[in-house]
């Protein structure tokens, strides 16, 4: 089983002064690449020397050094995101240059360290992997299911009705699928079978 992933419970900010340069990390949960890029644009400060950033949304990721030497800013920020086991996360580290050069190693430590500390201190929630299931329910069982959706941490994603009942598609945590499968079998006396769609 893979290690748990986390998402930010709320946007987070951290300021660090490193050898007269000011570094400010801003982090937020993002649900798409477009949302990540919009966040980068919204928190970047045009008066700053550099606005370096990275994001990870599932398997999609990107980073930018924004004029810093290659590999000294964006990649360490992405490594901080991955090192904190974050998903659906964008981090922008803004730097105001203070007159003292940090060198490649110093820059990587400053950008990566500021991002990592921001994420470490931020409020986080475990990301729960959802899966989709589908099954058919007769009309008589629909109110019973609706009354128990919260118990299964499930949400109805789609329902199609015919003369006998409804074909349903639900999203729920993978850990609750077996319990729902038993409930569907019992509620329909074995006439309906739950099918996972992933």
Which structural traits does this protein have?
single chain, five-stranded antiparallel beta sheet, 11 strands, 198 residues, alpha+beta, 2 domains, four-stranded antiparallel beta sheet, Alpha-Beta Plaits, Ribosomal Protein S5, domain 2
Q: Could you walk me through the main structural features you see in this protein, from its secondary elements to its overall organization?
A:
With 198 residues, this protein is an alpha+beta fold. It has helices at 33-43, 74-83, 103-121, 142-148, 177-187; strands at 6-8, 12-18, 21-29, 50-57, 60-64, 89-96, 124-126, 130-138, 155-161, 165-173, 195-196. It folds into 2 domains: 6-126, Impact, N-terminal domain (Ribosomal Protein S5, domain 2, 2-Layer Sandwich), CATH 3.30.230.30; 130-196, 2-Layer Sandwich (Alpha-Beta Plaits). A 5-stranded antiparallel sheet has the order 2-3-6-4-5, with helices on both faces. Strands 9-10-8-11 form a 4-stranded antiparallel sheet, covered by helices on one side. Strand 9 (155-161) and strand 10 form a beta hairpin. Helix 2 packs parallel to helix 3 (103-121). The longest helix has 19 residues, at 103-121. The chain is elongated.
Strand order of the largest sheet: 2-3-6-4-5
The fraction of residues in strands falls at: 35-45%
Unreliable residue stretches: none
CATH topology of the largest domain: Ribosomal Protein S5, domain 2
Span of the ends, CA to CA:
17 Å
Q: Which structural class fits the helix and strand makeup?
A: alpha+beta
CATH architecture descriptor text of the largest domain: 2-Layer Sandwich
Could you tell me the mean pLDDT?
92
Q: How many E strands?
A: 11
Radius of gyration (CA) equals 23 Å
Helix content: 25-40%
The tally of domains stands at 2
Q: Major beta sheet, specifics?
A: 5 strands, antiparallel
Shape: elongated
